Please model this.
Amino acid sequence: MESWSSYPVPKISGAPQPLRLFDTATASVRPSSPSELARMYVCGITPYDATHLGHAATYLAFDLIQRQWRDTGLAVRYVQNVTDVDDPLLERAAHTGENWVVLAQREIALFREDMTALRVLAPDEYIGAVESVTEITEAITSLLASGAAYHVDEDIYFDITSAPDFGYESNYDRATMMRLFAERGGDPEREGKRDPLDSLLWRGMRPGEPFWDTSIGSGRPGWHIECSVIALNRLGMGFDVQGGGSDLIFPHHEHSAAHAESLRSEHPFATHYVHAGLIGLDGEKMSKSRGNLVFVSKLRNAGVDPMAIRLALLDGHYRADREWTGGRLRAAEGRLANWRAASKLATTLQDQELISRLRSHLADDLDTISAIAAADRWAEQANARSRSDGDEVSGEGAEAIDALLGIAL
Model:
């Protein structure tokens, strides 16, 4: 599947700082210490609607990780999937009367446009579930052969007891797992399962649903195994970051890790499990089911500068749930104007101080709140001087804000 185009990332002077990130599995901020190649997998969209601000905030968080790694001189291999066949997509297509393939293609194209406008660095591989069916069925065949998977009628399930460390990523108790599994696409009540928390690997053919004829039968892949296989086959075990929104902690990331670890008989799937907070509107999580979405494309079409959207979403810690309000966007537009004015006035010394502060704050678990405050101080000082003050204007401050925060001035 085609990805999108990335803008060049400026190189900036000075000493970069190694990144420290919060890991959900250990509930601690730990160094992210890749060797020469940093490997990251981030769960992508199910393309049944346009990119809303909750999506955008998540992908911006992982874009910052890429930028910090690259600033320290690391090469990055970034993989993202697209769940281009799944129940929510099929349900939306049935509701609107649209072909599910056409719907997915349109929304994927719009997502690419939104990511390009927001200057999100593109994944090296952008992989759809549909194009991965063969490798997914091969993995399920292996799980069946090892006894880690079993049939329930025409469907195939994963046996969680085959993953000895199941539960380590989320650290949830069983009652919480049961509740979230039922709320987030699981089927704990399905008769014939060995354990209510066993997850679907393969959904056998149903009337009116798309299917593939394979060696394990006719049907389509489950959600969790999709990400296990795509990540394993492109990044290997023990890659550096498995990422997504905090609503993916369980069941999706717990099960995708368990599938992979059972397939390879290795632990862990990833060395950091990193999760972004959710964006709310009027006190509720922004979601398609609630109909309270603010779309990136609609803001762009209304003439809002994508850099203001990006800045507004970064004005809050990536792990924190936060509210979207009109005031947040207006504040970002004003801040952006101040920074752009300052970029034409800031001295070399002011720029160097800004670069040092940006690196320090962002290396500390992506502390964008402090980084933005540092840029505000830089802008205030730069805008207070006149062009006749004599010190040379370097322009490096603007390059650093682009390189590290992804905001073009």
Summary: The chain has two domains: 20-280, 306-318+326-405.
